[in-house]
Structure formats: structure tokens, C-alpha cells
Specification:
Chain lengths: 160, 187
Amino acid sequence: MSPRNRWVVSALVCISLLGLAGQGRAKEAAPLAEDPVVEQRLIVISEEMRCLVCQNESLAGSRAPLAEDLRREIRGQIRAGKTDAQIGDYLVSRYGDYVLYRPPVTPITWVIWFGPFVLLLVGVVFLLRFVRRRQSQAALPPLSDAERQAAQALMTPPNA
Amino acid sequence: MKRFLIPLILVGVLVAFLGIGLTLNPHEVPSPLIGKPAPTFTLPQLHSGEPWTPERMKGKVWLLNVWASWCPSCLHEHPVLVNFARTQNVPVVGLNYKDQAADAKAWLERNGNPYVVSVADLEGRVAIDFGVYGAPETYLIDGDGVIRFKQIGPVTPEVLTEKIMPLVKTLSAKADAASVVSNGVPK
């Protein structure tokens, strides 16, 4: 391929890629949600909920069919005028506390809620003890004359 | 030696917790519906299209099995259910979950039909009421319509003999005792 031909080919590739990029953008302009207010509340609620199929994804972000169905149900409940708490109860009564990213504070979840603070407290106690010990070591009495002479003798080369 | 003891114990505890965690199945989320009345519903039957409701099963101990022709694990589980329906006197109702009627019927023709009736839940609404999050799932419901047990994933022969059948026996005994009290004569 001659250098000139190569230029023509790469120019054509660039142009066709530009065309593709344009198409991509045109597709992104999906139809707006029917009711932006409902959609906004749907996002706020479903971001707090776990998708049971892909367990590390929220209901808002999951593409699992069940997540789509549950979003449809939540949408319906928002339109029916239910409060966020009622919608949360609707999901919890069916799927358990597991759907909530923020589980309620019950004896079973104490470890999750308070465990980190307990660990922090334990760490602080250990740190304080460590620092105290270092301080008491630093406060050792200065060397006596005899000790100083002994140290000096150790540091002096024997042939000096 | 002594100063290594505490870190060693801590690591041991950590390893024990991680070890237990490895043996758990994160996809088995305990259902809050155990011990609660099963949700009521009315759905068309898969074959006749006539409406069906679980109230018809009142007084019986029965299984509700969520299945679909698109679900590979259901196919895997199916022979176990077919055999169960043939050998045990426990009605199995199928909840055909988000399926096409034609596909579902063909699937039953091909693989055998263990169900006394299958009902079609096209949109998966009833399944949501039952807290279904993946087929297959199976519920054991007693004569009062209370959910007693839920199997997430395929029913295996072990689950049937070790969990479901013992429960069926105690629940049936209770239902019979109740019918003696109410009718004065045993069934």
C-alpha cells in the first residue's frame, strides 16, 4: 500500500467511525420517562434496595428481569400514592430485610452497626497503652557515672 | 512465645469465620413468609384458562412449585417432581412463571406433568407476592394455607426425604386431628 493510499484508507476509517459515533449518540437520546417526578422517586427508593438476583447491584441499577418487574411494581405504588416507608415494607414483607442496603437495628444486626465503633475503641485503648509505655521508657533516669565509663570503654578501640 | 498468642488466636477466629462463610450459599435468602399465610391470588389455569385460586386447596397439605420452560434448573428438577407426584399423595401445583403458554404446554408434554394444575403468572406479579426471586422455588403449604417451608433452587430427593416429607407427615396428622374435632369423625 502506498503512503498516499494509506492516508486515504485511514481518512475513510475515521469518517466512518465518526458516523458510528453520531449514531450512538442519536440512540442515547431515549424517550424521556413518562413522568419525571415518579422516575426520580423510583430511583431514590430503588437505590436503597438490593437486587436479589445480582446481589451486589441495587434495584435501580440491575438489568435482571426481576429487578425490572420490581421497578414496575414500585412505579405502580408511587402512582397509587404510597409513601416510601410503605413501599419499603412491601418489599421487606416479601423478600425480608435482605433487600435493604441499610438493615434495621435489631439484636442480630448490632454487630454490623456497632462492631466498627467497638473495634475503633479497642484500637484507641491499645494505642494509648502503647504510647504510655513508650513515655515511661523515655523517662528512664540518666546514666550513672559508672555506667557512662563502662559505655565509653566499650566504644573505645582496644589499640588506641 | 506469649506475645504471638493473641494475634494467633485472632487469626484463628478470622479463619473460622471465613471458613463458615465459604460453606454458606449467598443465594439462599431466608423467606420472611415462613409461618405466614400464603398470599391469595386468582390466576388462569395453564390448560383450561379457567380461574384458579389456592382456596381450593384448603384442608390439604400441598406444594406450590414455581417453574418455567425457559428455566434450565427446572428441567433438572423435573424428574424428581414427576416421581414425587407418582409415588406420594401430596398434590403439587405449578406456578408457571413468566412463560409462554404454548412453550409451557409443550414442555410438560415432553417432560411429563407432575402438577394437579398449573396456573399461568405471565407478569410474575403473584411470584413477587410469594417473594420468588428465581425459578425453581417450591413452597410447602398446610391445610390452613400457611407457608411451612420454602426450597430455593431445585428440589432434590434429599430435600424431599429429609425436609419436605417429615413436615408433610406432621402437618397432615395435625390437619386430620383438626377434622376429627370439627366433624366428629375421622376422614
